[in-house]
Write a structure and sequence with these properties.
three-stranded antiparallel β-sheet; five-stranded parallel β-sheet; globular; alpha/beta; 8 strands; 4 helices
Length: 181
Amino acid sequence: MSIETRVIMDETAIRRALTRIAHEILERNKGIEGCVLAGIKTRGVFLAQRLAERLEEIEGASIPWGELDVTFYRDDRNKTAEVANDNGFKLPVHGKKVILFDDVLYTGRTIRAAMDAIMDCGRPESIQLAVLADRGHRELPIRPDYIGKNVPTSKSEEIEVLLQEIDGSDMVRIMHDREEN
């Protein structure tokens, strides 16, 4: 068996998707006042940073953004063995519109963990969700507000996001096992 890959977003497509998402955020929120970006560790952090830069280019004002670590909020971890649950997010969220950013939305479990982590920081006015790729197959009733690309997949396929900051290139690819004869 071998892995077959197909690029579904290149560097240009990712840049365009982030620009479109930036405009959608501005339109929905009537600007960036009262908004905070939270990038879900790891790749969501870099996407949130890029989005913050786009928003600043468009608006001429900066939007606060930070890194959110949801490790201790995940439902697939043994909670009894863990004491610390610092999510690393240092920005005030009370009364703010928090925009979570993740690279891929699949089952919704990471986003549920991220919402729990944000709620531990305070009571936001709202939580919105931006994702670079939505592949479906939700296990929880979670729907993104901003989507870079809808990518219908089978459960045997995977979506891999590569970003310049940690992978050396920008692309989103779909991967699946291919039977060899």
